[in-house]
Amino acid sequence: MSQYRIVCADIQPVNAPRPHQHIVAVGVDINNDGIADQQHNLELVIDNIRDNKVIYYTIGSFTGKRANVEVAHCPACFHEIIKTKPDDTRDNNLEQIRTCNWRSS
Description:
Blueprint (H helix, E strand, L loop, with lengths): L1 E11 L9 E8 L8 E4 H9 L3 E6 L6 E8 L6 E5 L21
Parallel strand pairs: 1-4
Antiparallel strand pairs: 1-2, 2-3, 4-5, 5-6
């Protein structure tokens, strides 16, 4: 099973209140250099988690603690979303991760 570190996220709608923004894609670091090498859309991430193909995770920027990502339902609209598994650390939460900056080549 592959493991991918999520280093950034694309969130929409950007102007919505924070409790109802959804991650629509994530940037994963496949080279272990802290840079997003691939963009995985939400559907792919959910399918990979459900099919046990990939473990997605984050690393806390200050604590260095790892948090695995899981599929959940939005409490506001009940759509499927992804979130980090609860722990006692905040800096490894998906909602704390930076926004992706995709550049065209």
